[in-house]
Amino acid sequence: MQALTNRAKPVDRRPMTFVERMYLPAIAKGMAITFKHIFQKKEVVSYPEQKREFSPVFRGLHVLNRDAEGRENCTACGLCAVSCPAEAITMEGAERKPGEEHLYREEKYAARYEINMLRCIFCGFCEEACPKDAIYLTETFAPSNYKRESFIYGKEDLLIPMPGEKKKA
Ligand code: SF4
Ligand code: SF4
């Protein structure tokens, strides 16, 4: 079969010479490469002591935003979920009751809002689709975990704290 590129290298099937069978030249060559790399710039980062700089266009974990008065911006319109190519977002809407005007900006709000971070591909489409400035992707990333269910982030994980309130650990 004809090769599509000229990158293929034919395998050398000649019997090994006496010097090759001693392996010493190959060991010396390998050690030379190892020593050469000792004095070269390290390409690894000792995380978590050292952290790499993020690209200016990095997209990480989501947050649900509040307005200047601390009310939730999200109106559970579902546009973020519809635009999500990974189908990572689920939500349940609810009607705002009298007396809850200080909690929710509009008549409808997301009683439940979840993002499955294992499905999310951090494309940012949800942020672009949101007409209420309610969802943003930040520069932090999901910490590692042993349980799959820990990667389903609920509203309590995503919503930014009320002004003066600390986020739960
Ligand atoms: S960043 Fe992309 S994949 Fe992740 S939840 Fe938003 S739209 Fe879905
Ligand atoms: S985050 Fe934005 S797009 Fe998604 S449901 Fe809430 S208001 Fe609609």
Automatic annotation (TrEMBL):
<keyword id="KW-0411">Iron-sulfur</keyword>
<feature type="domain" description="4Fe-4S ferredoxin-type">
    <location>
        <begin position="62"/>
        <end position="94"/>
    </location>
</feature>
<feature type="binding site">
    <location>
        <position position="74"/>
    </location>
    <ligand>
        <name>[4Fe-4S] cluster 1</name>
    </ligand>
</feature>
<keyword id="KW-0874">Quinone</keyword>
<feature type="binding site">
    <location>
        <position position="126"/>
    </location>
    <ligand>
        <name>[4Fe-4S] cluster 2</name>
    </ligand>
</feature>
<comment type="function">
    <text>NDH-1 shuttles electrons from NADH, via FMN and iron-sulfur (Fe-S) centers, to quinones in the respiratory chain. The immediate electron acceptor for the enzyme in this species is believed to be ubiquinone. Couples the redox reaction to proton translocation (for every two electrons transferred, four hydrogen ions are translocated across the cytoplasmic membrane), and thus conserves the redox energy in a proton gradient.</text>
</comment>
<dbReference type="InterPro" id="IPR017896">
    <property type="entry name" value="4Fe4S_Fe-S-bd"/>
</dbReference>
<dbReference type="GO" id="GO:0051539">
    <property type="term" value="F:4 iron, 4 sulfur cluster binding"/>
</dbReference>
<keyword id="KW-0560">Oxidoreductase</keyword>
<protein>
    <recommendedName>
        <fullName>NADH-quinone oxidoreductase subunit I</fullName>
        <ecNumber>7.1.1.-</ecNumber>
    </recommendedName>
</protein>
<dbReference type="GO" id="GO:0005886">
    <property type="term" value="C:plasma membrane"/>
</dbReference>
<keyword id="KW-1278">Translocase</keyword>
<dbReference type="InterPro" id="IPR010226">
    <property type="entry name" value="NADH_quinone_OxRdtase_chainI"/>
</dbReference>
<feature type="binding site">
    <location>
        <position position="80"/>
    </location>
    <ligand>
        <name>[4Fe-4S] cluster 1</name>
    </ligand>
</feature>
<dbReference type="GO" id="GO:0009060">
    <property type="term" value="P:aerobic respiration"/>
</dbReference>
<feature type="binding site">
    <location>
        <position position="77"/>
    </location>
    <ligand>
        <name>[4Fe-4S] cluster 1</name>
    </ligand>
</feature>
<keyword id="KW-0479">Metal-binding</keyword>
<keyword id="KW-1003">Cell membrane</keyword>
<dbReference type="GO" id="GO:0005506">
    <property type="term" value="F:iron ion binding"/>
</dbReference>
<dbReference type="GO" id="GO:0050136">
    <property type="term" value="F:NADH dehydrogenase (quinone) (non-electrogenic) activity"/>
</dbReference>
<dbReference type="GO" id="GO:0048038">
    <property type="term" value="F:quinone binding"/>
</dbReference>
<keyword id="KW-0408">Iron</keyword>
<keyword id="KW-0520">NAD</keyword>
<comment type="similarity">
    <text>Belongs to the complex I 23 kDa subunit family.</text>
</comment>
<keyword id="KW-0830">Ubiquinone</keyword>
<feature type="binding site">
    <location>
        <position position="123"/>
    </location>
    <ligand>
        <name>[4Fe-4S] cluster 2</name>
    </ligand>
</feature>
<comment type="subunit">
    <text>NDH-1 is composed of 14 different subunits. Subunits NuoA, H, J, K, L, M, N constitute the membrane sector of the complex.</text>
</comment>
<feature type="domain" description="4Fe-4S ferredoxin-type">
    <location>
        <begin position="111"/>
        <end position="140"/>
    </location>
</feature>
<dbReference type="Pfam" id="PF12838">
    <property type="entry name" value="Fer4_7"/>
</dbReference>
<keyword id="KW-0677">Repeat</keyword>
<feature type="binding site">
    <location>
        <position position="84"/>
    </location>
    <ligand>
        <name>[4Fe-4S] cluster 2</name>
    </ligand>
</feature>
<keyword id="KW-0472">Membrane</keyword>
<feature type="binding site">
    <location>
        <position position="130"/>
    </location>
    <ligand>
        <name>[4Fe-4S] cluster 1</name>
    </ligand>
</feature>
<dbReference type="InterPro" id="IPR017900">
    <property type="entry name" value="4Fe4S_Fe_S_CS"/>
</dbReference>
<feature type="binding site">
    <location>
        <position position="120"/>
    </location>
    <ligand>
        <name>[4Fe-4S] cluster 2</name>
    </ligand>
</feature>
<keyword id="KW-0004">4Fe-4S</keyword>
